[in-house]
Design a protein that fits this description.
There is one protein chain. This protein has helices spanning 8-17, 33-38, 52-61, 69-90, 92-103, 106-115, 123-134, 143-147, 155-171, 175-192, 208-218, 222-232, 239-243, 252-255, 278-281, 283-290, 317-331, 344-347, 352-357; strands at residues 24-26, 44-47, 246-248, 266-269, 296-297, 302-303, 335-340, 363-373, 383-393. It is α/β, with parallel strands linked by helices. It folds into 2 domains: 5-64 and 235-272 and 309-393, Rossmann fold, CATH 3.40.50.150; 69-232, no CATH class. It has a 7-stranded mixed β-sheet with strand order 3-2-1-4-7-9-8, with helices on both faces. The protein has a two-stranded antiparallel sheet with strand order 5-6. The longest helix is centred in the first third of the chain and has 22 residues, at 69-90. The protein is globular and about 70 Å long. The two termini are 28 Å apart. Bound molecules: S-adenosylmethionine (SAM).
Length: 394
């Protein structure tokens, strides 16, 4: 998610240069590279508009004693098999068609993917989704099969993903366990997904090479990857560090003026820098996490209530930065900001240094060249060399 792992050590240095007297607020925390670099020395308030990222933040940076893996995993596996069996029965004919498509030529697989009924295109699937959304039995656990099968995941994997969510909701009811298991589940979905680094669209089949890629992605076993991810999602820092961290899920520009931030020491902001909305690029994980059967249309299967932000709209980006700077100034705390040279603000003709200097008496900047994620958008490139700037405003 445009992770700033490569920049995290420099951001930490910049944050320490202002000698914060309270927690560090990471307003656009994504998957938490900066929070991770601040452990265990500076308490953090992480925030992101996408709610699925908060499960990861809570699992890694917040308090709570987890059960032992050897206690919880066998219970989850039992429940998982239970729901998997039910779903295999429901989708028996789709599974048979899928296996024929996977063993046939590329045209057969392409046709299977094109014709697979899902909520974006099928009235039947929409009706079933409505019924499942209000079910209080295991029938509810069908979302992936209805929304993302035959594209982002195979039918078989969709069944596994739904069965796992059922098992997690049933057996990991304590919050620290639920956050941990749900993070491992989302992380497993991200490993097996048939998509480039983001999920704005899935990979289609248009020849033998793409057939190989889809077959490879669709053949991965969700349970196996999940069990690996359970071990990988570890709690970071120390118990006392995690005890004072907080995870929020709201618009950064709302949070900056809210009481929740009283007593903080510094604000770190790493806002989006392109016109591509994160909510479109990561919509699959958001819908999996929320498991709320949203209205969805078309082949991309996007939820129709996607979050949009002024930071990614050329005509609104200047106002968004103005609100960020004035919000930090009104709180009387320093603002550390990372933003690349080629960000949308510059493309909108706004000089960021000038904007920051109109709010703060001291603004310094350090610049470095990095390989930047482009979200695989516009030109189709995944990485681009860019100059990243870290502004320290006080
Ligand atoms: C450049 S990424 C941050 C990456 C993060 N620093 C990391 O290392 O993982 C921007 C993040 O801001 C989130 N976002 C976009 N607009 C937002 C807003 N108005 N309020 C809060 N979060 C927002 C996106 O979902 C995305 O995760």
């Amino acid at each position: 998610m445009g992770t700033k792992r490569y920049l995290a050590a420099d951001v930490r240095t910049a944050i320490e240069s202002v000698k914060p007297l309270g927690s560090v607020v990471d307003l656009f925390s994504g998957i938490g590279a900066v929070a991770s670099a601040l452990a265990p020395d500076h308490h953090v308030v992480t925030n992101d508009a996408l709610s699925f990222t908060t499960a990861l933040s809570r699992a890694r940076f917040c308090a709570g004693r987890r059960s032992a893996t050897s206690d919880i995993l066998p219970k989850i596996k039992l429940r998982y098999r239970e729901r998997e069996d039910e779903l295999k029965e429901v989708h028996e004919s789709a599974l048979a068609k899928e296996s024929a498509a996977l063993t046939g030529d590329w045209i057969k697989l392409a046709e299977f993917m094109e014709e697979y009924p899902h909520v974006g295109t099928s009235a039947d699937a929409k009706r079933t989704a409505r019924a499942c959304s209000s079910a209080i039995t295991s029938e509810r656990y069908s979302l992936t099969s209805l929304y993302f099968a035959g594209g982002y995941f195979s039918v078989r994997q969709s069944i596994q993903i739904d069965a796992l969510r059922y098992a997690i909701d049933k057996e990991a009811s304590r919050e620290p366990d639920w956050d941990w298991m749900t993070s491992a589940w989302l992380s497993a979905a991200a490993v097996v997904i048939n998509a480039p680094g983001h999920t704005a669209q899935y990979l289609r089949v248009s020849g033998e090479n793409s057939q190989k890629r889809v077959r490879r992605a669709w053949s991965r076993d969700v349970w196996e990857v999940f069990a690996e991810r359970v071990d990988a999602i570890s709690q970071e820092g120390t118990t006392s560090w995690r005890g004072k961290n907080v995870s929020c899920n709201t618009d950064a520009l709302k949070l900056i003026t809210s009481d929740e931030l009283d007593g903080i020491g510094v604000i770190y902001a790493d806002p989006p820098y392109t016109k591509d909305h994160y909510s479109r690029y990561y919509h699959v994980y958001e819908t999996l996490y929320r498991y709320d059967f949203p209205a969805s249309n078309g082949f991309g299967r996007y939820r129709d209530d996607r979050f949009v932000t002024g930071f990614s709209v050329k005509t609104k980006v200047e106002a968004a930065f103005g609100a960020l700077a004035s919000g930090a100034k009104a709180r009387g705390v320093p603002l550390v900001l990372s933003y690349p040279d080629n960000g949308l603000l510059g493309l909108a003709g706004v000089d960021l240094m000038g904007l920051l200097e109109s709010h703060f008496s001291t603004v310094t900047v350090k610049s470095r060249a990095y390989n930047h994620s482009t979200l695989g958008a516009s030109g189709g490139e995944q990485k681009k060399l860019a100059v990243e700037n870290i502004y320290v405003c006080s």
